[in-house]
Write a structure and sequence with these properties.
This protein is an all-alpha fold and 210 residues long. 65% of the residues lie in helices and 3% in strands. It contains 8 helices and 2 strands, in the order αααααααββα. It has a two-stranded antiparallel sheet. The chain starts with a helix and ends with a helix.
């Protein structure tokens, strides 16, 4: 039983990573990964919405009629996204502004709806919560990795959340003086995503070959 729960928790890290393997939720990944702070903020939003939507939908899976399950899921997810928006607007307005339209678009994020339909509606509350945590961590690892590469090469910095007198911007020697500006733009997002996706496909094919 413990092994089953652990598998549900860890499958989203690499084996079924929602970005690099299943290729879901690419719109926000490509859109907000120009800075690490944006990636962390989006991860926090996805984590909150995915966790609680999975839990609620799993608890109500025998109550929601099959004919209206998708609209019901969207209402639940939209309510959670609204809460997320208000909290971010109140406590981290800079991140809220940076995420822009991609924050409310969590409502129709393929990862959220996909896990609700494919997993939470068919499994127990505990397994659904573990699935949500694992998929959120996998999403966070993916978008943060892309953001680190893009910001490092594109701007020569790593931007974290400002605390006290700390501005949040950390210049990285050499990279700061020799930026590759295209990496901070939309083509850079596609390039990084393409190379990382190819790497994961190569790793997967090698594992299957063995």
């Amino acid at each position: 039983m413990k092994n089953t729960h652990m598998k549900e928790l860890t499958k989203g890290f690499f084996e079924q990573n929602p970005v690099f393997v299943i290729a879901l939720g690419l719109c926000p990944v490509l859109g907000v990964s120009s800075q690490v702070s944006n990636a962390i903020g989006m991860t926090a939003g996805v984590f909150f919405v995915l966790l609680f939507s999975n839990i609620i939908i799993s608890m109500l899976r025998n109550v929601i009629p099959g004919s209206i399950h998708i609209p019901a899921y969207i209402v639940i997810i939209a309510s959670l996204v609204t809460v997320t928006e208000m909290v971010m607007h109140a406590f981290v307005p800079a991140v809220y502004s940076a995420l822009g339209v991609y924050l409310p678009l969590i409502v129709v994020n393929c990862i959220i709806l996909g896990r609700a339909e494919a997993f939470a509606s068919k499994n127990s509350t505990l397994d659904s919560a573990l699935d949500a945590i694992g998929m959120s961590i996998g999403f966070g690892l993916a978008i943060t990795l892309i953001a680190v590469i893009r910001e490092l090469f594109g701007s020569g910095t790593i931007t974290l959340f400002p605390v006290g007198t700390f501005t949040g911007v950390i210049p990285i020697p050499w990279f700061y003086d020799n930026p590759v500006r295209v990496m901070a733009l939309a083509p850079g997002a596609l390039l990084v995503m393409g190379f990382l996706r190819a790497f994961f496909e190569w790793k997967s094919s090698r594992k299957k070959g063995k």
